[in-house]
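Key result, reporting period 2: structure in, sequence out.
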């Protein structure tokens, strides 16, 4: 029964996130923001809502391991699976934005801070405030960067302008509200059912969080980024991943730690945290050398296989 509830809960999370992302994108287009800014902020925050809701629900339910492992696992999946698939299915990826000089280091900074904060064995409320402040700083950076950009083509094409004429705040707010209800309720049942699965199979909540829950909550990033890439909106797709990973550490862990201090053992979870660091460094290396191709996608998939193999052998075996 827990499996059925888990699948239905994940479905609610994905549908809710889709509602939120679609309406948020309409708001962004209404204000004529760039594709990258939409991807890195509105869509990234929308697709991170399942992780956020699941981790906060886990914290309220005293499943603290699941709160952190969900964020770490989601970061690994976003890069090693979502980005890998984008590289494998897309041809001639030529983003207009220089991700390396502007954005990818922002994905590494919160991880380094997270590791430093974890040395004493707990992510406390001060740590949470600092992580949330970092997310606010990135938003300010994007806002300032947007104002500096010159000569870029306007976001709204003819199709967007037609849809913009039909923009309705009442409809948008109503659909956003429905999306939030789906996400919050789905997160609650996802955490409860995943915990039940863990206990039935004798698997720790950390493993369930870092594999099952994190994969499920990464599905919105997967669906939306792949869809954007297929439509040629590569900046939006990659921006979604960078923004989502930043949000996972700053917002997901930060908000969860505000609810309750989160214990963390660097020694126990060294491999998982290292895999997240390696994935982020690979992202930086790829953007620095503009390796937006299939070999890069295969390299990322190799990392995913190593991560899953280690989890199966040493934590589930």
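The corresponding designed sequence is given below.
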């Amino acid at each position: 029964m827990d499996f059925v509830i888990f699948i239905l809960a994940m479905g609610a999370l994905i549908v809710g996130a889709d509602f939120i992302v679609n309406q948020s994108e309409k708001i962004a287009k209404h204000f004529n923001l760039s594709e990258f800014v939409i991807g890195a902020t509105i869509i990234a925050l929308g697709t991170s809502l399942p992780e956020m809701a699941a981790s906060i629900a886990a914290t309220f339910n005293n499943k603290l391991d699941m709160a952190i492992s969900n964020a770490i696992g989601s970061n690994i999946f976003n890069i090693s699976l979502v980005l890998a698939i984008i590289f494998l299915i897309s041809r001639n990826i030529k983003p207009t934005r220089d991700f390396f000089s502007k954005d990818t280091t922002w994905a590494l900074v919160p991880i380094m801070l997270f590791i430093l904060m974890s040395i004493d064995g707990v992510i406390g409320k001060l740590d949470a405030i600092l992580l949330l402040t970092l997310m606010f700083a990135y938003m300010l950076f994007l806002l300032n960067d947007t104002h500096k950009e010159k000569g870029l083509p306007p976001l709204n094409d003819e199709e967007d302008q037609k849809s913009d004429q039909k923009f309705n705040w009442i409809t948008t707010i109503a659909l956003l509200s429905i999306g939030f209800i789906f996400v919050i309720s789905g997160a609650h049942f996802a955490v409860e059912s995943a915990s039940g699965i863990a206990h039935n199979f004798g698997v720790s909540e950390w493993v369930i969080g870092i594999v099952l829950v994190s994969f499920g909550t990464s599905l919105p990033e997967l669906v939306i980024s792949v869809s954007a890439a297929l439509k040629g909106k590569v900046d939006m797709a990659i921006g979604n991943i960078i923004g989502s990973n930043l949000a996972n550490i700053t917002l997901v862990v930060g908000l969860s730690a505000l609810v309750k201090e989160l214990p963390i053992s660097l020694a126990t979870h060294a491999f998982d945290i290292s895999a997240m660091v390696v994935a982020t460094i690979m992202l930086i290396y790829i953007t620095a050398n503009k390796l937006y191709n299939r070999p890069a996608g295969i390299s990322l998939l190799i990392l995913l296989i190593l991560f899953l193999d280690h989890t199966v052998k040493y934590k589930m075996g």
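The chain has one domain: 2-316. The mean pLDDT is 84. This case is discussed further under Risks and Mitigation.
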